[in-house]
Amino acid sequence: METTKTEINKEFPIKLVKELDKYIVGNDQYKIVLSMAIRDQIFTNKTKSILVMGPTGSGKSYMIEVLEKCKTCPKVNYTIMTEAVDDLTEAGVQGKELSDIFKRYKQKCIKENNDSFRGLIFIDEVDKLINPSYVSSGGSSEVYNRNAPIQH
């Protein structure tokens, strides 16, 4: 019996969650949302941004690492890449720029023969981009956000 695209579309997130279950205990809601978002992007061309929040050590980054290394996941033309923002810098300062993330993603897609350039870029520690800075003026301390322009 031949598998139709509709059947693959329905089975894909189920298979992906089962694969994640082999390596990750709990985080069921995250597994489902992530699997459905990947499915939607692959099969319906819908792109979604997902903000994942949780305490340190809750498995946010690890789940993406598992997906990146997954050898038995349902294989499709899809690239997954993790990028930490720790060493991103402002324009003119030595270090990585935001555009470098997309250059590396394109290179990884080419290496993986992903002609569609579809995939997932997981930007880890994004909270550090909007972390407030503390300054002291006279006898009082003030809080300001050094990255206010990016919060539009």
TrEMBL record:
<protein>
    <submittedName>
        <fullName>ATP-dependent protease ATP-binding subunit ClpX</fullName>
    </submittedName>
</protein>
<keyword id="KW-0067">ATP-binding</keyword>
<keyword id="KW-0547">Nucleotide-binding</keyword>
<feature type="domain" description="ATPase AAA-type core">
    <location>
        <begin position="50"/>
        <end position="133"/>
    </location>
</feature>
<keyword id="KW-0645">Protease</keyword>
<keyword id="KW-0378">Hydrolase</keyword>
<dbReference type="GO" id="GO:0016887">
    <property type="term" value="F:ATP hydrolysis activity"/>
</dbReference>
<dbReference type="GO" id="GO:0005524">
    <property type="term" value="F:ATP binding"/>
</dbReference>
<dbReference type="Pfam" id="PF00004">
    <property type="entry name" value="AAA"/>
</dbReference>
<dbReference type="InterPro" id="IPR027417">
    <property type="entry name" value="P-loop_NTPase"/>
</dbReference>
<dbReference type="InterPro" id="IPR003959">
    <property type="entry name" value="ATPase_AAA_core"/>
</dbReference>
<dbReference type="InterPro" id="IPR050052">
    <property type="entry name" value="ATP-dep_Clp_protease_ClpX"/>
</dbReference>
<dbReference type="GO" id="GO:0008233">
    <property type="term" value="F:peptidase activity"/>
</dbReference>
<dbReference type="GO" id="GO:0051603">
    <property type="term" value="P:proteolysis involved in protein catabolic process"/>
</dbReference>
